[in-house]
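Lab meeting tomorrow. Look over both lines:
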Amino acid sequence: MRQNPNTKTVSLIGVPMEEGAGRPGCSMGPKALRIAGIAESLEALGYRVEDRGDVIPQETSYIPGGTAREPARVAGFARAIAEAGEAVFREARLPIFLGGDHALGFGSVGAALRHAEAEGRALHVIWLDAHPDFNTPAISGSGNMHGMPAAWFCGEEGFEGLMDAPALPPSRFHAVGIRSVDPAEQELLTQRGVDVCDMPMIDEMGVGAILRRILGEVERDDAMLHVSLDVDFIDPEVAPGVGTTVPGGATFREAHLVMEMIHRSGRLTSLDLVELNPFLDDRGKSARLMVELAASGFGRRIFDRPTQAA
């Protein structure tokens, strides 16, 4: 059942979180996205936008085995994010999670999974990222938990006690734009049958064909759709404001096409904007691009874009 986005209120949830990443700076991401005009861009498209402020991490004593770094802090954020997201879902509003590093996916996808279960709906997740983030505390070399949320929400072991949520079938996890995978992570992805669409596949088939196939599966399942957009999905020449730059990412037009197709599907029910590190950005270039991509996801067309001053 599609939902008409023009009747929706969009709720912004800030997540000033950097403990999941390997270097500081992502905690400034929510403010940078607000300054770049996320609310104003969506209001210009006819949406009602409310800003619920930034979440405050809960106190936890979560300590998994393995190499995970800052686990209690990450778990505290995850639980606070999930509660904030569920509250938005219950009010029939669409949450946009402003990151913050990609460990916020523990909470944002956790909230979407809980809501989907309560509604008796399926959920698909499109993960736009250079990395599949399918490590576990047992196999991660760095221990950085921004590389682990997908493994958790697909039901992998090693996260017991982090947070309760239904598991997402790996076949409904679509990792798009992948070009950096750890060896043990690659083996796990293959074993689980995750839908990995790497950059060579995009080069060969075109991103439009890949998105049509994925969105067709979402339509077939009459599913909710959570989209998680990492700055490093895009080539670092276009979007430098990220701590995990990997050359050879999506072009400006490929990224916009993905978001335009997601809007046209009418299936988007929640969105992450993650891994923006303003300290590494070039005068707000990446923050503005993320806002523009979000606007494409909510219906802005190429004809609606004003010409930029030289």
